[in-house]
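Hello,

I think I submitted the magnesium ion job twice by accident. Can you confirm which output corresponds to this input? Input:
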Amino acid sequence: MPATSVFGAQWGDEGKGKLIDLLAKDADMVVRYQGGANAGHTVVVGTQKYVLHLIPSGILNPGKVNVIGNGVAVDPLKFLEEVDGLHARGIAVDGRNLRLSSQAHVIFEHHRRIDGLSERWRGDGRIGTTGRGIGPSYADKAARTGLRIVDLLDPDHCRVRLRAALAEKNALIERVHGETPLDLEAQVERYVALGAKLAPFVGDTGREVREAYKAGKRILFEGAQGAMLDIDAGTYPYVTSSNTGANGISAGALVPPRWINHVVGIVKAYCTRVGEGPFPSELKDAIGDRIRKQGNEYGSTTGRPRRCGWFDAVAVRYALEISGADELIVTNLDVLSGFDEICAAEAYELNGRRMLDWPAELASIEGVRPVFARHKGWSEDITAVRRFDDLPQAARDYIAWLERTCRAKVAMISVGPERDQIIDCRR
Ligand code: GDP
Ligand code: IMO
Ligand code: MG
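Support: Only one job matched these inputs. Its output is below.
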């Protein structure tokens, strides 16, 4: 696995944290390349549960290098909070096992404020963001008014740049949104101080990743969010502000795209979504409530109840195709135990026409009706199963259907949140 991409192939929360932690034991380096602290990646180790937002999910594996690449939007407060939180739990985190790109863009307090104010301004058209300042920070990056981590390291330079940026944002906060502006000087001094604390972690991570690759190290690229939340490929405008699949790696970590020689999509055995936007296989009924209850489907970052629905093979096929994924990891199969019948969308219907392909336009996506394939359920508790052949026949049939319909090999099946609750189908 010299360079492996592992990404979410639905709308996020597919179990990326658990799998990255697991796969990291066979890697040397784990690299985040997009998103920010909007991510909530859960890793369960014995009785301990860790929710990682910015720090790669390889951090719990001693001796691995974890990289926050240039494509990530970094909130220095969240970064340091997470480092401190890990220290407090006895996890060693320093400039050797955690690297932060000098070219990553910064999320400031004004970005978080504007995220919330823009959502309020949008009213019924709101996106349902995580409120972490992601959109406003990436907007500034594209507008070339953003500051990067390197800009925080030189106090005089930081003061000049941040004063200029914040003066404009304060005008927006005050004059457009009618709210109290931020104290400019207090903000400037706060971020200058934060810059000094970040310094030990900061470096030219693009070069570090490329050198590691050239030295034969095994690199794991950890996607955040999911393919259907990708700013280009997803259900725009109900998306996040970055490229979430393997398609984001080259730009977000500064490595050549052809280095990525193994691409794995992670999917839940059903589907969830947090926030607004289309979700064709959503279940707004007692079955959806039951999935939420059995799967404990509440946001890892915001605690919001996740919208739940059946697996959607149309969306997953599309997600896998964009990133060129040839393998699937299916998580949360255990959550489906006890259902008499399990459905999964194999196609859509739009104006009486059957469609197998994901429609690019939002209006079409909003109008589609899922066509469900019906599968027999199983009643057994499968959380202790470790071999594919020991799964109930109905569960094996369901996995075989997923493979056929999504046109990808299932490499692993997760049957619980813990590290060892995994069926490795490659053996
Ligand atoms: P991520 O954002 O993709 O890393 O996923 P989250 O951590 O936001 O959400 C996944 C949730 O499912 C977490 O609470 C995990 O501990 C949990 N989880 C992961 N894999 C499994 C599994 O196979 N079965 C069950 N029941 N829970 C799982
Ligand atoms: P992980 O990495 C699920 C969703 C938000 C909202 C939209 C835009 O844990 O899978 P943003 O704050 O990014 O501007 O919000 O994207 N969203 C996620 N949903 N899992 C995530 O991350 C998400 N990160 C963002 O709910 O609908
Ligand atoms: Mg999550």
